Amino acid sequence: MVRLPCPLLLLLPLLRVSAATPEPCQIDDEDVRCVCNFTHPQPDWSSALQCVAAVEVEIRGGGRSLDEFLLKSASANPKQYADMLKALRLRRLTVGAARVPAQILALVLHALGFSRLKELTLEDLEVTGQVPPPLQETPGPALTTLRLRNVSWATGGAWLGELQQWLQPSLKVLKVAQASSLAFPCAQLRAFPALTTLDLSDNPGLGERGLTAALCPRKFPALEDLALRNAGVETPSGVCAALAGAGVQPHRLDLSHNSLRATAAGARECVWPAALSSLNLSFAELEQVPKGLPPKLTVLDLSCNKLNRAPRPEELPAVDDLTLEGNPYMDPEALQHQEDPMASGVVPPCARSALTMGVSGTLALLQGARGFA
Ligand SMILES: *[C@@H]1O[C@H](CO)[C@@H](O)[C@H](O)[C@H]1NC(C)=O
Ligand SMILES: *[C@@H]1O[C@H](CO)[C@@H](O)[C@H](O)[C@H]1NC(C)=O
Ligand SMILES: *[C@@H]1O[C@H](CO)[C@@H](O)[C@H](O)[C@H]1NC(C)=O
């Protein structure tokens, strides 16, 4: 067996060449993007070697379990390959479609700590076991962006704290979609000092209650953008309460693609973050402008709702840039398009996004059983 320094091969250290299988990895002509799809039952792992020169690498495991590598990984020490890992051009890595023991994930993060990786994406993974903490001398990668979609963790909401131990405090963007748990035990979480964007979109089971559990107080001091598209949010005032409770001060808040109600039953007045300047309420099925919006905004997007009449000035906050397109009172066909996007040959902007919403709706059904408590 050949021993190679590439983190891809640390993840998959078994080099078993079988001539009959098709080449699982493909690199583009510019040596920038390399994509591996190990769906074959006995894939040729050595094919990953061609990705060594790539800047962007994507690896899909065909849903396989990586348990078999657990024993082999026990003796691996990425440190001995530190110089070669440092020399890799790798900046963006996507790993998807596999069942991964947490110890292997830790080993990969350890190896990536010697690389100059900036963006890591994990998709359709099931992480088993608890992610072990790093040895003090080995920080993980200095990521700027971490994206997770449909990643489930054996340790529930503790996953973020476990993962965070492996990351240097450089993270600027964190996106978590289709999460199994966003109820983070706040005491175990350290602050994210550089995080400016938190995107919890496409978590239809989240809602205001889940948001309150996810936004640990004082852990997101630099937050500027909070995206909650299709996140089961019911009222802007409920979000306001969650933000106030957590002391989170975003500048931009995206609540589009939620079924919003205009008034919350028994809602209390809430003080919006002073820095909030942009609010997106498009595709929110609103028949009226919701009550309790921030008194003053730079941007308010109310496009593609179900407003049947023009909002009266006293119903709206003071706003510089107001978007009301795609509401039935302005465009009588808008509603029809939203309900039946295929009705006409031309696809108006609201209809196109309503289609995407259809996809998210399916997701909501798939996710229905998952809890956020
Ligand atoms: C991986 O390969 C399988 C079978 O060859 C194919 O069905 C699947 O769509 C591929 N996945 C990706 C992400 O390319
Ligand atoms: C989520 O990931 C699991 C693997 O952990 C996969 O079986 C499932 O199909 C994925 N779900 C979606 C909606 O992609
Ligand atoms: C508001 O959200 C919609 C849908 O998510 C998006 O298309 C639109 O560009 C956003 N508006 C602003 C002002 O960012």
From TrEMBL:
Keyword Protein transport annotated: no
PROSITE patterns: LRR
Disulfide bonds: 25-36, 34-51, 186-216, 240-270
Signal peptide span: 1-20
Entry annotated with the keyword Secreted: yes
InterPro entries: Leu-rich_rpt, LRR_dom_sf, Monocyte_diff_Ag_CD14
Keywords, comma-separated and alphabetical: Cell membrane, Disulfide bond, Glycoprotein, Golgi apparatus, GPI-anchor, Immunity, Inflammatory response, Innate immunity, Leucine-rich repeat, Lipoprotein, Membrane, Repeat, Secreted, Signal
UniProt topology in membrane: Lipid-anchor; GPI-anchor
Biological processes annotated in GO: cellular response to lipopolysaccharide; inflammatory response; innate immune response; positive regulation of cytokine production
Main location, first listed in the record: membrane
Subcellular location: Cell membrane; Golgi apparatus; Membrane raft; Secreted
Known partners and oligomeric status: Belongs to the lipopolysaccharide (LPS) receptor, a multi-protein complex containing at least CD14, LY96 and TLR4. Interacts with LPAR1.
Function of the molecule: Coreceptor for bacterial lipopolysaccharide. In concert with LBP, binds to monomeric lipopolysaccharide and delivers it to the LY96/TLR4 complex, thereby mediating the innate immune response to bacterial lipopolysaccharide (LPS). Acts via MyD88, TIRAP and TRAF6, leading to NF-kappa-B activation, cytokine secretion and the inflammatory response.
Protein name: Monocyte differentiation antigen CD14
